[in-house]
Amino acid sequence: MTDPTETPAQAQRRRLINLGEIIALAALVISALGLWRSWSEKGEQAPIAVEKKTSIPLALRGKIEDGGKQLAIAPVEAGHALETLTIRVPGKPPLELGSDPNLAASQVESLLPDGASKRGAGTLAISIDARYIEAGTDRRGGGRYRLGYSWIDGGLFGGHSLRLTGLTRG
To answer: For the range 46-50, what are the long-range contacts, defined as Cβ-Cβ under 8 Å and sequence gap of 24 or more?
Structure first.
């Protein structure tokens, strides 16, 4: 019922208040629906993406031991585990090393070219083939390396002995 003493301006104001109440009520309903939807989807979590590791190529390093009488060859990457290592020099039989490769100077002496000078220092181009394990998978790798060596005089009784000086890529 309307009040007979109500002016048209007051009636219009009352209608605007009702329109505002209706808009507020609609916003409340929409917010409640959004809240219910997000709460009901909590049990359905998005799948977790697992990052796949990429394979790292095998790189080797050599560590001089026993004053150059031995060279310990090991992978640079800690995640690589050597199984076998084969050293090849053209024209010479391959040299097979195990999973913990230690290369002795006497073994390298047999790989040097025939008639090589037994004075000073030099490098020997070698090819290394390796089987290794990375993240539980068998892999093959290797490459070309340069093996550094030097000859030292034998002292009182003469002769020369070979000492290893390093291993570099290339």
So the answer is: none
159 and 128 within one domain: yes
Q: Are strands 137-153 and 160-169 parallel, antiparallel or unpaired?
A: antiparallel
Same-domain pairing of 12 and 92: no
Q: Is residue 51 a part of any domain in this protein?
A: no
pTM: 0.63
Cα dihedral value 76, 150, 95, 98, nearest 10:
-40
Which residue range(s) make up the domain with 139?
60-169
pLDDT at 1 over 60: no
Q: Contact, 92 vs 110, CB < 8 A?
A: yes
Provide the number of structural domains found in the chain. Answer: 2
pLDDT digits (tens, 9 = 90+) for 149-170: 888 876 566 677 888 898 988 8
Q: How many residues belong to the chain?
A: 170
